[in-house]
Write a structure and sequence with these properties.
47% helix, 3 domains
Length: 279
């Protein structure tokens, strides 16, 4: 493949196409050598200078799906998270679902009083042992990372909050401050977070138990990964507060509420069973 070909990222910026980055993401999704070679051979015929990254993804996803639906779903997860937009509210709900799966009670969009000023906190989570507050940093574009500036800003907020008492599951002080992003952290943000004690959770961090690991182990697949839903369907479901595939599985009536009927609804439920490995 011609390595001097440039591709166009979501923000319009161009960069050289790196075949190994694509190979790495395909391997990470569980693609074997045969599948990867097939995708590269196909892409070699189709790629052109300035090709959008979204188009490269679409080609790869379509071929992966024909080989292995589980591998295709895993490959699509990161992009599916970025579709919980355009604003960050659905992602805040998604982060709350993670803490609920860990056994916490949660509230979103809370106004928290600090020592100096009040702060809008995306997620507050608590159990008998801990009170946790979370800043959920959502990016529409996969290439955007949460950087050192974000980590510094979050640390300043938690410093202002930590001396106050709060009434979540009883009178208590803040135990942990978290920064959660749907994309990646820069190396500096990770280094700083580890140094000052901010809990970080993103696509690439920590090495074990990162966002991708959590989605797969707890079956917290965002419903935006479903191929049986149109973009209009997804927008309507987001408006109803749906964030997980299991939200639809547990309440299939939400599909009829947005105007879908059988056999479409049956296909959607069948795909959810495949994605979440529900028997």
């Amino acid at each position: 493949m011609n390595h001097l070909i440039t591709i166009t990222k979501a923000d319009g910026e161009r960069e050289l196409f790196e075949e190994q980055k694509l190979v790495g993401s395909l391997k990470n999704a569980g693609g074997n050598d045969e599948i990867i070679d097939d995708i590269l051979e196909h892409l070699n015929r189709e790629i052109y200078d300035g090709m959008p990254t979204s188009e490269i993804y679409a080609h790869a996803f379509k071929l992966l799906r024909s080989h292995s639906m589980p591998v295709a779903i895993k490959y699509s997860l990161r992009r599916a998270l970025s579709e919980l937009g355009p604003d960050g509210f659905p992602f805040e709900k998604y982060v709350a679902k993670i803490f609920q799966a860990w056994g916490y009670e949660t509230l979103t969009d809370q106004m928290i009083m600090g020592g100096c000023v009040s702060h809008e906190m995306d997620v507050v989570a608590w159990d008998k042992k801990k009170l946790v507050m979370v800043e959920a940093k959502f990016h529409n574009e996969l290439d955007l990372k949460s950087d050192l500036k974000v980590a510094l800003y979050i640390k300043a907020r938690f410093d202002d909050i930590k001396e106050n008492m709060f009434d979540y599951g009883g009178k208590r002080k803040l135990d942990e401050g978290w920064l959660v992003t749907n994309t990646k952290f820069t190396d500096q943000a990770i280094r700083y977070g580890e140094c000052v004690g901010i809990k970080l959770l993103g696509w690439n961090y920590p090495q074990k138990g990162n966002l991708q690991d959590i989605i797969e182990s707890l079956r917290l697949h965002p419903f935006t990964c479903l191929t049986t839903l149109s973009n209009v369907n997804k927008k309507n479901l987001l408006a109803k507060g749906v964030v997980l595939c299991t939200d639809i599985y547990d309440n299939p009536n939400v599909l009829t509420e947005i105007g879908l009927k059988s056999p479409n609804t049956d296909e959607i439920i069948a795909e959810i069973k495949t994605v979440c490995q529900i028997k």
